[in-house]
């Protein structure tokens, strides 16, 4: 952004009789994109598959097909990604999932890791 400022310029005798223009530049501050975090569900031998699908639909807005695909990935590979979010959103989702699983007496684990 450029701004113009009128300044007083001194003549040879040191008195401010003339006028001039100076240019002032202002730099726009650069904003850094927030770090992203992966929210992951970990496999266990006790939590029912249908419960995991429900978690994915309820807290991660996945449709039935996507939720089932992620649940099967968790079942077959031990871990699956639910989504990628900013720190605060990821932390909230992990807490919501863990609280919901405990309320329903399931040992499901949900964690977050920096992408």
> What is the helix tally?
3
Number of beta-strand segments: 5
Give the C-alpha Rg: 29 Å
Helix/sheet category: alpha+beta
Strand order within the widest beta sheet: 4-3-5
User: Outline, from the CA principal axes?
Assistant: elongated
Kindly estimate the percentage of residues that lie in beta strands according to DSSP.
Answer: 25-35%
User: Helix coverage percent of residues?
Assistant: 25-40%
Describe the structure.
Helices cover 37% and strands 35% of the residues. The protein is built from 3 helices and 5 strands. The radius of gyration is 29 Å and the shape is elongated. The model has no long low-confidence stretch (mean pLDDT 88).
List the keywords:
alpha+beta; elongated; 3 helices; two-stranded antiparallel sheet
What is the topology?
Blueprint: E1 2-10, E2 16-25, E3 36-42, H1 49-60, H2 64-77, E4 79-86, H3 87-103, E5 109-114
Antiparallel strand pairs: 1-2, 3-4, 3-5
Helix pairs in contact: 1-2
């Amino acid at each position: 952004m450029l701004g113009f400022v009128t300044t007083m310029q001194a003549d040879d005798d040191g008195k401010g009789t003339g006028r001039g223009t100076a240019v002032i530049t202002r730099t726009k501050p650069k904003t850094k994109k927030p770090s992203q975090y992966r929210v992951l569900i970990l496999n266990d031998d006790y939590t029912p598959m249908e419960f995991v699908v429900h978690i994915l639909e309820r807290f991660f807005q996945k449709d039935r097909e996507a939720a089932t695909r992620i649940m099967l990935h968790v079942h077959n590979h031990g871990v699956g990604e639910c989504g990628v979010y900013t720190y605060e959103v990821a932390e909230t989702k992990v807490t919501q999932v863990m609280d919901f699983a405990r309320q329903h007496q399931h040992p499901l684990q949900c964690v977050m890791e920096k992408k």
